[in-house]
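Appendix B. One record, verbatim.
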Amino acid sequence: MILEILCTVLIDTPYKKAFYVPFTFLSYFETSDVQTCDQAHTYITEQLQQSKFLNTAGEREQHMFFKKIHNKIDALEQLISASDTLDFE
């Protein structure tokens, strides 16, 4: 099993603002546009404020999190198997 982890990176220092978005497995799209970097900063900040640590969440929240992840994995497996059956070779 190959696990591909691609991360969005935001650099925000007094000297430089840059936003990196995964483009391919080995490369990123980089922008230093101030408006784009500010929007990314706002979005990431809002996401962090609404997030919880999984280890301190209640058992119900942990169950919901893992159930959602398993459902996504199952849906992707079905898409993969469907594309295999549609292969005409």
